[in-house]
Amino acid sequence: MLVLGVESSCDETGLALYDTERGLLAHALHSQIAMHQEYGGVVPELASRDHIRRAIPLLRQTLAEAGTAPHEIDAIAYTQGPGLAGALLVGASVACGLGLALDKPVLGIHHLEGHLLSPLLASKPPRFPFIALLVSGGHTQLMRVDGVGRYELLGETLDDAAGEAFDKSAKLLGLGYPGGPAISRLAEFGDPNAYQLPRPMLHSKNLDFSFSGLKTAVLTVVKQHGKLDSNLCEQDKANIARGFVDAIVDVLVAKCMTALKQTNLKRLVIAGGVGANAQLREALNAAAAKHRYEVFYPELQFCTDNGAMIAFAGAMRLREEPGAARREYGFGVRPRWPLDELRPPQASPAAT
User: How far is CA 346 from the centre of its chain?
Assistant: First the structure.
């Protein structure tokens, strides 16, 4: 089965073709980072307009790279939510329009399920069941994953997600957008003993997270040097960045190890943009080796939003539930869509 994936939930436009027998055939991605940098963050209206400009050229690029004609596509999967409403509508309209024009069934995919399953695209994918740390944008969650659609929420953030804390703290330090990679790079030059920032909920008796207090601690340290980030020398910024990154990594690693211990599982999967963080990967690898766990990551190119994860998630859903894709082309999107509302695929007849 050949599935076209369309991703447009925020500031990346992604198209991909995944074949259940041959694997990932091609994918194309356009990032809007350069456009949004001037504003210090994503401007939803600009994001939506840019998706409109990019989707069809990226589709043509993907088809050409795969050597595939449009009529060879068996189904079209698109990100239905969560995300920015206008951006989601662009991808949904492109996918459903193509489905109507080609007489192909379409399927809406949960964006976070795409991230959750993306490590399975690797050459050595994890086997079910496993614990997954989902750290993407405004989401930080620990899940038990027993199969496609079989997800149990073990813990989640009570306020700011890890990605939000990275971006907000980077802004306090006067770093550019996106803040996560910038603060991570700066932390490499910092003194780990200069600032001991709090580890929120590190010793709580559950698997929930809270990062708003850590962001506030960064603000407090910055204010001690003056009201403006320009009053900080580069070494001070690096030291604060190191203190912040060490704190957030300590919490994420500790919660992951606790989740594995409580569930008696041996495999940990990291998914989402923060999964690309070098300090987090190093600390998780060390902790996993100590306790004889296995840890899996998506390839770096699939940590951020991309069409490949949507095509793959669609293919996995359709493999278990062939009738999930429909030739019904009226569409809606779900900007807010809790992952725990997903249900396991049900055996059904072939696509109608």
Answer: 26
